[in-house]
């Protein structure tokens, strides 16, 4: 059984994550900020590596084999409410897939931040993938979610093709983060 946990501010990541959850037959879990943080707060929060309070949610993922984590990127970093989720969620022993929603930014720094948050949590990041979501219509975001589900299913079915980013149980870091970019036409 799979779960898809996601944070969204503008709605792009929500459409993508919920379609992905439908395609994978996964339980969607939305990470919601305690309040609606404006663009300025999100920018400063990202730059200062802050944790923003999130609304109460089920943080126990022990019944899931795999958890797909989806977040937008702000100034090269994961969204602050998502960072809070990573800090507080019970993910020990879980296999993870990271999906980054971006406007075309370089995602290496975001992956490094996520890896730091997950270090020592006893998880294994199978791989990460990013999707350039700016200016995509809702239909294009649905199509992106469908394509992501196919890619995730394929990678997990063919373990020899999977390229782990890091194993947080050992803390070993690769020389360079592995990312597979997916850009969908506008």
Summarize the structure.
The protein has 186 residues and is of the alpha/beta class.
How are the SSEs ordered, and which strands pair?
Layout: E1 2-7, H1 12-24, E2 27-31, H2 39-47, E3 66-74, E4 77-78, H3 80-88, E5 95-102, H4 108-118, E6 124-132, H5 138-157, E7 166-167, E8 179-183
Parallel strand pairs: 1-2, 1-3, 3-5, 5-6, 6-8
Antiparallel strand pairs: 3-4, 6-7
Helix pairs in contact: 1-5
Explain this structure to me?
The chain is of the alpha/beta class and 186 residues long. Helices cover 33% and strands 25% of the residues. It has 5 helices and 8 strands; from the N terminus they run E-H-E-H-E-E-H-E-H-E-H-E-E. Strands 1, 2, 3, 4, 5, 6, 7 and 8 form an 8-stranded mixed beta sheet that branches. Strand 5 (95-102), helix 4 and strand 6 (124-132) form a beta-alpha-beta unit.
Task: List its salient traits.
eight-stranded mixed β-sheet; 186 residues; Rossmann fold; globular; alpha/beta
């Amino acid at each position: 059984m799979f779960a898809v946990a996601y944070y969204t501010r503008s709605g792009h990541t929500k459409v993508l994550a919920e379609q992905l959850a439908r395609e994978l037959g996964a339980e969607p879990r939305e990470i919601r900020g305690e309040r609606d943080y404006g663009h300025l707060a999100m920018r400063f929060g990202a730059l200062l590596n802050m944790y923003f309070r999130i609304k109460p949610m089920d943080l126990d993922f022990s019944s899931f084999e795999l958890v797909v984590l989806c977040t937008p990127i702000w100034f090269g970093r994961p969204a602050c409410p998502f960072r809070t989720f990573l800090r507080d969620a019970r993910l020990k022993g879980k296999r993870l897939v990271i999906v980054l929603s971006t406007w075309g930014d370089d995602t290496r720094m975001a992956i490094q931040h996520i890896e730091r948050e997950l270090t020592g949590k006893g998880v294994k990041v199978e791989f990460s993938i990013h999707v350039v979501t700016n200016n995509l219509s809702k239909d294009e975001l649905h199509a992106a979610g469908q394509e992501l589900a196919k890619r995730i299913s394929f990678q997990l079915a063919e373990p020899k093709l999977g390229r782990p980013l890091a194993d947080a149980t050992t803390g070993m870091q690769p020389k360079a983060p592995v990312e597979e970019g997916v850009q969908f036409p506008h």
